[in-house]
Every structure is written in structure tokens, then in C-alpha cells.
Amino acid sequence: MSLMRLAYASEATFMAKPVEKGVEPNVARILMESRNNNARSEIVGGLYYGDDQFFQYLEGEEEAVRNLYERIARDGRHRDIITLLEEPIDARTFTNWSMKYVPLSSDVNRFLDKQGMDAFRPSEFNRSQCEEMINLIRNSSEDGRVVSQDSVRTNRNRQSVIPRGILVGLIAAAVCLVGAMAYVGTML
Predict the structure, then answer these.
(1) pTM of the predicted model, to two decimals?
(2) Closest alpha carbon to 137 in 68, 50, 52
(3) Which top CATH class is 3-157?
(4) Residue 82: what pLDDT?
(5) Which of 98, 104, 102 is nearest to 33 (CA)?
(6) Nearest CA among 86, 85, 88, 70 for reference residue 1
(7) For the chain, which end, N or C, has fewer CB atoms within 10 Å of the first or last residue's CB respectively?
């Protein structure tokens, strides 16, 4: 039997909910299902979800991977599915993962910054970016780097309402005011 690898991008059809334990709840359900089903089919790989977009990488027996991809294409939680990479391989590279999940992390932010992207749009990846994302998923360590999707999106895409210089001035004024109040309190 022949092994193959497949990477695809898709857009989530659900409205993202607040992150619980580092994972968006809809994505957590997808992961639980994937891990159970993929283990039975001996499919390995990784998943990343951000900015309402999925990037998923799969490896396994060609028939099993193609069957899974057909199910994903019919899954109502995905739309605008685009195959990014599809080719035979000699050996698996994700041997310990039925479906590895990479939460939002500093690695992904560095990748986006390096690529000049202000949002995660895997449907626009070229082959090199696709390979880099696969390696990022393969090599990522989730320890200590899980952050809220909402906070990353907010930090990456929103300008501060108060300019930094004014904010620093307001903080300094507040510190001085507290100090003055403490000094006056000692005089009474």
C-alpha cells in the first residue's frame, strides 16, 4: 500500500467562541473526533486554527487519507476547502500524533510576521509557506505557549485607542497622584 500526504486550508463556518483551556470549543470537538477516527484509520498529522481558518496536514495510506478528505469536504464546519499539497511519501513524519493541535503560539506569530501577513490565511500559502507551516506544526511544543485566540487577534490587528506616549504620561500622572495622596495622608 502507498503512503501519501495532504495539506488543505478551509474557512470555519461556525462563529468562534471564547477559548477554553487553550482551544476554541468547536475546534476541541473536531480534535476529539479526529483523534478517535484517525487512530482507527492510522492517519497522522496536525491541525492549526486561527483567524477563522483551518490548516490541516494529513499522512497515511492513500485510500484512508482520500476517504477522510472527502468526509472533511462534506463537513458543514468547513467551507472554501482548498488542497494545498497532495503527494506520495515514503514514510510518516508525524508518527506519534493521530492529530496534533497547535494552539496560537509565538511560533505562529513569528511565521506570520516573517511572511508579512497580518492574519492567518493558509489558502494563500505557496508551497514553501505550506512546508514551513507543516514543519512548525511538526516541531511545535505546546508547553507554556497557549494563549487566547481573541487576545492574539486583538494584539495583531487592532491599534491602541490611546497613543503610547499619552498612555505613559497618564500612568506617570497616576503614580504621582497616588504618591501625593500618600504623602498628604502622613501629614494628617
Answers:
(1) 0.69
(2) 50
(3) alpha beta
(4) 95
(5) 98
(6) 88
(7) C
Cα dihedral across residues 100, 106, 109, 115: positive or negative: negative
What is the dihedral sign for C-alpha 162, 167, 173, 174?
positive
Rounded CA separation 22/73 (Å): 26
Q: How far apart are CA 19 and CA 170, in angstroms?
A: 32
- pLDDT, one tens digit per residue, over 55-80 is 999 999 999 999 999 998 998 888 99
Output the average pLDDT for the chain. Answer: 78
**Percentage of the chain modeled with pLDDT above 90:** 29
Cβ within 8 Å of residue 178, ≥6 positions away: none
> Cell 482520500 sits at which residue?
66
Record the cell numbers describing residue 145, joined without a space: 505557549
The three cell numbers of residue 105 are 503560539
pLDDT of residue 104: 57
H-only helix segments in the chain: 25-41, 62-74, 106-115, 127-139, 149-157, 164-187
